[in-house]
Specification:
alpha/beta; Rossmann fold; 2 domains; 6-stranded parallel β-sheet; 14 helices; elongated; binds adenosine monophosphate
């Protein structure tokens, strides 16, 4: 696996696929610059080597050329974060971009216009990828968020660089973190899966059962398992057509010596609302008209015991409806447990969707080992899929 450290970029032009798909407000100002900050170490290393950077990214989902999706809007933010003037090419391919890239001197940065202004990008078009490849000597992929897409700039372009391609700092860190959880992590290894539905997590569960020692199941998924085992779940969310699968997962887990921890009590509410009446009840005895929207105190304590006994921890999905303050407690407490375990030497990875939002909302991002930057890409990695953007750098 080649990283930036395998290259000296002196007098080289690096063509870097970054993920600058940042949110903008109605004045086209960047409202969350996390993704630009995440790309900074890669850009700085190349500039410090004496190289130059040609940055390419998508922004939003434009249909053809649409001014509101222009990457021109973010130029000043990138300049502010990197501390270097950023030149801009108003088309990512063609003469203007080629000239601008050719004229780039050591220490300079060029940002190309939105790749998705060309439909060839998402189609993975070879001629378009080849046109992009002309801009640089070395291809660097630092965009984990799109690594699961076989697009021209994320995958196809790599074939034009033979040995001159590598992962950027961010993407390398993502790969390393997933690898720690899936292959090299210190035991016991724990996966915590929450969120709404079993159906969206089933492939992950099946894939990770071979790699973990403990599995905590929380969130709305819980009730499919509980009902399948004969419990009364009241009006809680449930996928009846997945109950057999839930039992099968429990059987497989037992055969593989994976200890499954389900909630034993829940915060039940008489409506899906912050102001609903609530009561703590046994997970198997939720009254009709009530729904479990968070894990209860006994479950929180049990989960804390499990988390503090584990050395490698993966967290995907909230333990309750954390968006509503009344049902955020178990998710917050789990964040605290993981933060403590991390302080005591465990490796913790938070990845995929809503658990990342929860970790950020409750201020845990600096208290866990790594927070993934890619939702879909992280989920597909946990499902055991080889991401095309990663394969293109490793295998070609
Ligand atoms: P996912 O995207 O599958 O990780 O699901 C995240 C969503 O699951 C969040 O929006 C939570 O509000 C929701 N969720 C968590 N626990 C429950 C629950 N007990 N009942 C209904 N929805 C839940």
């Amino acid at each position: 696996m080649k990283t930036l450290n395998d290259f000296n970029f002196e007098n080289k032009k690096a063509l870097i696929r970054v993920d600058f798909n940042v949110p903008l407000n109605d004045k086209f100002e960047v409202t969350d610059a996390t993704r630009i900050l995440s790309a900074k170490p890669t850009i700085i290393k190349i500039l410090e080597d004496g190289g130059s950077c040609i940055l390419m990214s998508h922004l939003g989902r434009p249909k053809g050329v649409q001014e509101e999706f222009s990457l021109q809007h973010i130029v000043s933010k990138v300049e502010e974060i990197i501390g270097v003037e950023v030149k801009f090419a108003s088309n990512c391919v063609g003469e203007e971009a080629e000239q601008a890239a050719a004229n780039l001197e050591a220490g300079q940065i060029l940002l190309l216009e939105n790749l998705r202004f060309h439909e060839e990008e998402k189609k993975g078009d070879e001629a378009f990828a080849q046109a992009l490849s002309k801009h640089g000597d070395i291809y660097v992929n630092d965009a984990f968020g799109t690594a699961h897409r076989a697009h021209a700039s994320t995958t196809v372009v790599a074939q034009y660089f033979e040995d001159n391609k590598c992962f950027g700092t961010l993407l390398a860190k993502e790969i390393e973190s997933i690898n720690k959880v899936m292959n090299t992590g210190e035991k016991p290894v724990l996966a915590i899966l929450g969120g709404a539905k079993v159906s969206s997590k089933i492939t992950i569960i099946e894939n990770i059962l071979d790699k973990i020692d403990h599995l905590i199941v929380g969130g709305g998924m819980t009730f499919t398992f509980i009902k399948a085992q004969g419990g009364n779940i009241g009006d809680s969310i449930c996928e009846d057509d997945k109950m057999e699968l839930a039992l099968e997962i429990l059987k497989q887990a037992e055969a593989k010596n994976v200890k499954v921890h389900l909630p034993v009590d829940v915060v039940a509410a008489n409506a899906f609302s912050n102001d609903a009446e609530t009561q703590i009840v046994d997970v198997n005895a939720i009254p009709e008209g009530w729904q479990g929207l968070d894990c209860g105190p006994k479950s929180v304590a049990n989960f804390d015991d499990v988390v503090s006994a584990c050395k490698t921890i993966l967290w995907n999905g909230p333990l309750g409806v954390f968006e509503l303050e009344s049902f955020a407690n178990a998710t917050i407490e789990l964040g605290n447990s993981i933060a403590n375990a991390t302080k005591n030497g465990a490796f913790s990875l938070v990845g995929g969707g809503d658990s990342v939002a929860a970790v950020k909302q409750f201020g845990f991002q600096d208290k866990v080992s790594y927070v993934s930057t890619g939702g879909g890409a992280m989920l597909e990695s946990l499902e055991g899929k080889t991401l095309p953007g990663i394969a293109a750098i490793i295998n070609d």
